[in-house]
Amino acid sequence: MFFSILEMLLLAGLAGTMGWFLGGALGACLGALLALLIHGTMLQWKLDRLEQWLSTPVLRQDPPWQGVWREIAERVQRLLRQQQRLAAVHQKQLQDFLQAIQASPNGVILLDEEARIEWCNDTAAVHLGLDVQRDRLQHIVHLVRDPVFARYFAQDNHASEVVIEGRASSALSLQKLSVQLHAYGEGRSLLLTRDITAVAQADAMRRDFVANVSHEIRTPLTVLSGFVETLRSLPLDAQETKHYLQLMSAQADRMQSLVSDLLMLSQLEGSQLPSTQDKVSLAALMLQVTTEAQAFSDWLACKGEGPVHQLEFAPVPDVYLLGARSELLSAFSNLVSNAIRYTPLGGRIQIHWSSTAEGLAFAVHDTGPGIAAEHLPRLAERFYRVDRSRSRETGGTGLGLAITKHVMQRHGGELRIESVLGQGSTFKLCFPRSRVVLDAN
């Protein structure tokens, strides 16, 4: 700017001097005015050229200018490059931040001052059934049409969360979402969603477990208490006393079995996985299972005054299983005893082994009443019974299949159940090849 003013004064002085020699004082004034006019016109032309250069989408890197105008252009270009680099850094940080939110297992929704969706990650879209592109700038309450959420959103205090049903809910699977609103910025809101289905199911299972254990223990305790009161208050002969004591012993045995199974489940859930160094002889294991199964069938036949079951044990492969002997024995015995327990006296029960693509399979097939399809997914749940009265008559605790399932999971295997109502059931234990060896060395 200083050089431009100096240039203007020099031109005006030069033109005024020339005008003085040509026309005196009047000539000097006219010459100076003419010089100022020409200088102003040139300055305006250069300013227009600079404006046009600045208005182009991409600035020309080497403008054909000289002097102060070239310096101005170069400074503008340097400032522009600095701003572009800074904008690129901020853009990269923003993308990294959005990618981090996108990878979050929780849903995140950004709402503007009018509660319209500005942005949301894919998790929130799945949780609430949103379309990321289509639903942008739509009011959140218009999209999440849940009365519980609408009431929560309308209240002033959002210090606590609210639980609603997710869009993935169905008749067979109910999804539970925890939703909470947080204020930030100037009137904006952050809506967080979290899938708590597993937590809700675990809480429900815990409540059911406590209720079932209480119920299972309360029943024999009530019977025992009644028998004790009878023995204390009534004069009984030796035969009656013996009968009551036998009934009390049966209830005590039932509670003992229940406690033992509960301790077994607790041990399975809290202990380390079975070692792959311990080799268990399958032949010796199945010999014990066979002996116990025959004794159990004889006891039921004597109790029910009917024929014993037709137990068919196929030859046992000469192999060893890697794992915990006590756990494996429990799994095999539970399947065989369940088949005996639920198959009518004189029924046929087949126990056999087979090689599969995964490894080795142990199968127990019975000719019992079968199980309806709707019960199959829940059979391995704790205390779940298809016929509660039948299992109690034969001493079942409702924990056998739950224990078997845990044992198989700990040994890398799987419990599979197949059944047709009225045609019998097949229970399989499938072991991976990594748990089967040919010799004990």
Write the layout of secondary structure elements.
Elements: H1 2-55, H2 68-102, E1 107-111, E2 117-120, H3 122-128, H4 140-143, H5 147-154, E3 162-165, E4 176-184, E5 188-195, H6 197-233, H7 238-270, E6 279-281, H8 282-304, E7 310-313, E8 320-322, H9 325-342, E9 348-355, E10 359-366, H10 388-393, H11 400-410, E11 414-420, E12 424-432, E13 436-437
Parallel strand pairs: 7-9
Antiparallel strand pairs: 1-2, 1-5, 3-4, 4-5, 6-8, 8-13, 9-10, 10-12, 11-12
Helix pairs in contact: 6-7, 7-11, 8-9, 9-11
Features:
about 450 residues; alpha+beta; five-stranded antiparallel beta sheet; five-stranded mixed beta sheet; 11 helices; 13 strands
Task: Characterize the structure shown.
There is one protein chain. The chain has 441 residues and is α+β, with helices and mostly antiparallel strands. The chain has eleven helices and 13 strands. It has helices at 2-55, 68-102, 122-128, 140-143, 147-154, 197-233, 238-270, 282-304, 325-342, 388-393, 400-410, and strands at residues 107-111, 117-120, 162-165, 176-184, 188-195, 279-281, 310-313, 320-322, 348-355, 359-366, 414-420, 424-432, 436-437. The chain has a five-stranded antiparallel β-sheet, sandwiched between helices. A hairpin with a 5-residue loop joins strand 1 and strand 2 (117-120). The longest helix has 54 residues, at 2-55.
